[in-house]
Structure formats: C-alpha cells, structure tokens
Amino acid sequence: MWDSMIEKVKIEIYKKEKRPTSQISCFYDVVHRSLVARWAKNNTPLHCLAHSLHLRYYGDAWLMEDSTRCATHRDGEISQERMKCFRRLFPNDDEYSRVLDEYAMFSMKNGPFEDLTSISKMATMEPKNWWVNFGAQTPFLQTLAFRLLGQPSSSSYAERNWSTYAFIHSLKRNKLTTSRAQDLVYIHNNLRLLSRIPKDNVKMWDVGGDAFDSMEDVGFLEVADLSLDESDFENDLIIDN
Predict the structure, then answer these.
(1) Of 26, 34, 25, nearest to 6 (Cα)?
(2) Does the global pTM surpass 0.70?
(3) Structural contact between residues 234 and 214, judged by C-beta atoms closer than 8 angstroms
C-alpha cells in the first residue's frame, strides 16, 4: 500500500486544488508529514517480524510488480529489526539459534518448506491456514505466525472508537449509563458512515471527525498521530466517575 499511496494522495489533493504538481501545496505538505510520521510510527521490530512471516512478500507476483522490491530476508532494515525481535523473544541461546535456523529454512524454502505443494500454496492460501498446514516442523515460527498474523494491522479503528466514546461520554454527560453510551456510539458511527454516501454527486470528506470538547487544543492531524500508548491521549479519554 505504501509503495503508491503517498503519490496517489498527492494527485488527488492537487486535482482538488486545480494546480500543477510542480507548484507547492501547503495542505499537501501537512498531509505528507502526517503520512510519513504514521509510517515511521508503525515501522517497529514487531511489524518487521510480522512482515517477515507473511507469505505474500516472498512470492514472485508481488516481487515482480516493482523492480525496487526484494524478498524480506534480503532487506537490510527489515532483517535488522527482525533480529532485534528474535533476540528479545528468545533470550535463551539455544532457542534463539533454533528460531534462526527455522527462519533460514522458511525464507530459502529449504527443509520442510521445499515441498512443491508448500511452495505453490504460498501464493493462494491464507497465511494463517498455510502455517497450520506446513509449519509444524518449525514450532517457534508457527507460534509467532499465529500470534502476529492474527492481529489487526493498525490501531486507528480502536482509537477512533475511543474518540467517539469520549465525545459522547464527557464530563457534561457523566450520568449516562454504560449501555446508553454504547448505543449512542453505535448510532454515531453508523450515521457517520451514512453521511459518506454521495448525494447529488457530492461526497463529504470526514476529515475532522468529532469535535472533541476535551481536546480543543489539538488539531485534527495531530489527533491522527496520537496513540493510546501515549499518556496525554489516555488522560483525555479516560474519565473517572
């Protein structure tokens, strides 16, 4: 997605502003910084390990789409972050050596992964199902694949749900029951989805989201860059009754 997303976003913004791409767009500069910050934030050792265990990034179809792509075990940055993750997850030297051997066999399609059925199914089978069928002889990698590939790729949806809940269950509405607040969040999100349906060839962009009473001093793009792991965000959203 990241290979072409920024360029596609740039084209849409310049088209909306009706200006050539050779000119400077202040709005695009802000959006570009936000996208780069999001990418840098998601580029963690755990993300690199999940990337290394996903079958798609070893297939010829994905590699041949762009000449700049390379298999995960040939990427220096991803390999470095993956090694950090292995060392942290397997502090025991024997287990660490074993998981390195398992990954070498997987990435090079050797040992239990050299079977033609195993190789052919990498391009068509859902990754977790593939690890169920062909990963039994590499138990460390199989366990990691089950845990990592079953996780959502982003926390943005969870963060948006927390944001909507904080907008509805504020200090001014602190007497709302839990069930009533949950119902209002459900209705609010569905109304937002309905508002995105084009009407008379006009489609509203839901860029701003909720007008948070509790986060008046935070801009919209700054909100998009926050995480539930950050104390400032958590303090604003968690309200003591």
Answers:
(1) 34
(2) no
(3) no
56-103 pLDDT, tens digit per residue, is 888 888 888 878 888 889 888 889 999 999 999 999 999 999 999 999
Q: What is the pLDDT of residues 188-215, one digit of tens each?
A: 878 777 776 766 655 554 444 544 444 4
Strand partners, 199: 202
Residue 63 and residue 31: Cα distance in Å, rounded? 28
Q: Cα dihedral sign for 40, 45, 46, 52?
A: positive
Q: What is the CA radius of gyration of the chain?
A: 23
3-state SS string over the chain?
Answer: CCCCHHHHHHHHHHHHHCCCCCCCCHHHHHHHHHHHHHHHHHCCHHHHHHHHHCHHHHCHHHHCCCCCCCCHHHCHHHHHHHHHHHHHHCCCHHHHHHHHHHHHHHHHCCHHHCCHHHHHHCCCCCHHHHHHHHCCCCHHHHHHHHHHCCCCCCCHHHHHHHHHHHHHCCHHHCCCCHHHHHHHHHHHHHHHHHHCCCECCECCCCCCCCCCHHHCCCCHHHHHCCCCCCHHHHHHHCCCC
